[in-house]
Amino acid sequence: MKLNGQVAIVTGGGTGVGQATSLKLAAEGCTVIVNYSRSKKEAAETVNTIVEAGGRALSHQADVGDDPQVKAMVEQATSQFGRLDILVNNAGTTEFISFKNLEAADFEAWERIFRVNVIGAFQMARASARAMELTSGKGHIVNVSSIAGINATGSSIPYAASKAALNNITISLARTLAPTIRVNAVAPGFITGRWLEDGLGENYEKFRNAFNEQLPLGRVCEPEDVADAILSLVLGSKLITGQILPCDSGMSVMAPLKI
């Protein structure tokens, strides 16, 4: 196990990509703080799975958009486990708004999405970087972005803009926190699971099938695929920083979807 003795925080760690990443980090020997905002049951189940497999984990409720809660979570990690090595900024939110419906993209939508996807990610990175420097002397931050932040696609204009901002923050922090802390991001495409099921409703299967048929690599992402990309950045070359790694089955290079 390559991460024995290391400690990670995974925001939004009880469901989807966050859950898959928490489990994979634990399987490599990492102690995992599984953060959640509303998914208490799922976070507890993730922790139980890790503990039953012989790992160490705990769940922690915190809204990443609230800086005092962020600082309290990082403080718990370092006080209980003595160090912090890895942050996976996975918590995110969106609203499904047609790009053509400009009026629906109101101030409230912009504020809520940016508060979690951008400000929350920055606050987590700021608090975690300080803890990494004080306890481990080094660390790695991986932001979970989206191909929407590169291609200006996805669930809504505010969401795409928030992920573009997260990509920019990734590069800014990589430059600022070097050489002790590496900062990278993964940019998934269509991911199976509750996020898109809830957002697309009855259209979910239609879109998933269309992408499965037309994506260059022949299938959409599963949460485990994205978790593998995250771990490849954590466990791979120590000379990678400031990079946005697409994990999209070729969505970024495919022809416009026909449906």
Topology diagram in text:
Layout: E1 7-10, H1 16-27, E2 31-36, H2 40-52, E3 57-61, H3 67-81, E4 86-89, H4 107-135, E5 139-144, H5 148-151, H6 157-177, E6 181-188, H7 194-200, H8 204-214, H9 223-235, E7 244-247
Parallel strand pairs: 1-2, 1-4, 2-3, 4-5, 5-6, 6-7
Describe the protein's architecture and organization.
The protein is an alpha/beta fold and 259 residues long. The chain is 48% helix and 14% strand. It is built from 9 helices and 7 strands. The chain has helices at residues 16-27, 40-52, 67-81, 107-135, 148-151, 157-177, 194-200, 204-214, 223-235; strands at 7-10, 31-36, 57-61, 86-89, 139-144, 181-188, 244-247. The protein has a 7-stranded parallel β-sheet, with helices on both faces. Helix 2 links the parallel strand 2 (31-36) and strand 3. It starts with 6 loop residues before the first strand and ends in a 12-residue tail after the last strand. The model has no long low-confidence stretch (mean pLDDT 93).
